[in-house]
Amino acid sequence: MAMNKNRLKKHNIDIMFLMILFLIFTFSAVSVLLLAVNSYKAVVVSNEKNSNTRAATAYIREKVRQHDKSGSIDISQIDGIEAIKMDEGEGYYLYIYYLDGYLMELEAKDDAGVTADFGNQLIKINNLEFSWKNTQLIEVEVEEATGEKRVVDIGVKSALYIDDNTADSEGLTEEEVANEN
């Protein structure tokens, strides 16, 4: 009987050792899995941030290039909001602007009396600003929903933008400035 007790005791220690070994293996496997999931989440979030910012700037750049005809692109306002205004022909214009957290697009007739909220929401962003950098470059600054900013210069080959201050300071008329461009 004493021999049976020793065998049983030894058998219990073997089982406990295997159980502890199994628990350590399980804990390690779950830890590695959690690290992989967190790493994957970080990559996805980073890619999504870049994707939204790039999508917004790429969209604006592509629309400007599509409408790059003499005098068809301007920075204007729709309903008091700054927008890039592009001539679609036959009195229609395409406006790209920022409203209520979104990059917006609106195609409308010039005298239709539409407001900015008629536009289509394209991409969620925090802010959007446009400015003429020079006579043939529009500077676009997009602020992503995360706060990250991206500045892109878009070349307008056919731009006929005349800055009255430039014409006056160089002693040129607006017509002479237009001919130089």
Automatic annotation (TrEMBL):
Highest taxon, organism lineage: Bacteria
Stored InterPro entries: DUF4860
Protein name: DUF4860 domain-containing protein
UniProt source species: Pseudobutyrivibrio xylanivorans DSM 14809
